[in-house]
Amino acid sequence: MKKLILGSVLAMAAGAMVQTVQAADFTLRLAHFFPPVAAIHKNVAQAWADKVMADSNGRIAVEVYPSSTLAKPPALYDAVTSRIADVSLTVQGYTANRFPLTQVVELPGITKSAAQGSCIIQRLYDEKLISDEYSDTRPLFLFTHGPGHIHTTEKMIKEPADFEGLRIRRPTAVVAKLLEGLGAQPVGMPAPQAFQSVQRGVIDGVALPWEGQLTFRMNELTPKHTEVGGLYTLSFLVTMNKDVYNSMPADLQKVIDDNSGETWSQIAAGVFDDADIKGRAQAVALGHEIYTVEGGSENPAWKPVLDKASEDYLAELEAKGLPARAVYARAKELAESCK
């Protein structure tokens, strides 16, 4: 009897779900690479999906696909243009050379927190300084994670010379230039691949924020941590297929518009900053060794290398006719007002 009742309840629940999907005028597929346990999945991607559905009275349903189930990290942006996904949450730098002006925000010394970085990058977009890089999709909101640090398996990094010979996972080409300048051998890979690569001895450590150490279980493998305040950050966005947006009636477009921009940029930032606290606390609880570089990216031993990496990147973009220095200057100005 219990099995019969349970079966009936499950059938009713399944029927209700089908009816909800059928009742929706639009069903959006939102794809990202974070695991289902991650705070970014639960409190950004899923929270946005739930809010859009509620605000539209169920006329917009959003199905969230975590863990790269619809597309691998480097393909998540293009998955939106090709309609593999209708919306994606991704890292711009995973699509190499596609968003060079956006990635100016990744350079050393610009941001100190996800809240500050997200404010900067969202305003750069709103001021149309980087918006041309997204002409093929409809960005909903942009944000950054918190400060990126260095986490290693055996060797503690205290100064640039300590990087010599170490293979360090880097998220983007911009961060690769920083690591090369510091003497490391950067190895490119999305964050979800880092655990297995460290476990197999393919790399000796990773460049990640404390959030990444928590989300991708890297604290289990890298007990040495070096905090270099202002070393780098990473830019993200949630973006939507333009044709899907344009096919919606005005009232549903307004639902999407109302769940875009700085408000959601700061919601995402808050999730990252909170996860940074938890990730660091986990490392402390595990008895890990944490070395904090005095003065961060302004430390005399680190600053010349990081300044050169920044200058080289800006000069490279300027040589291609891109207004990198203007974007950089505005990002530095916004860093003050976004504190």
Automatic annotation (TrEMBL):
Instruction: Alphabetically list the UniProt keywords.
Output: Signal
Segments passing through the bilayer:
none
Listed NCBIfam families? TRAP_S1
* Entries under Pfam families matching the protein: DctP (PF03480)
* Gene3D superfamilies per record: Bacterial extracellular solute-binding protein, family 7
Question: Which first-to-last residue range defines the signal peptide?
Answer: 1-23
Q: Which PANTHER family match?
A: BLL6794 PROTEIN, PTHR33376
- What biological-process terms (Gene Ontology) are attached? transmembrane transport
**Highest taxon of the lineage:** Bacteria
Read off the InterPro entries from this record. DctP_fam, TRAP_DctP_sf
The name under which this protein is listed is TRAP-type C4-dicarboxylate transport system, substrate-binding protein
> What is the species of this protein?
Amphritea atlantica
Keyword Signal in the entry? The reply is yes
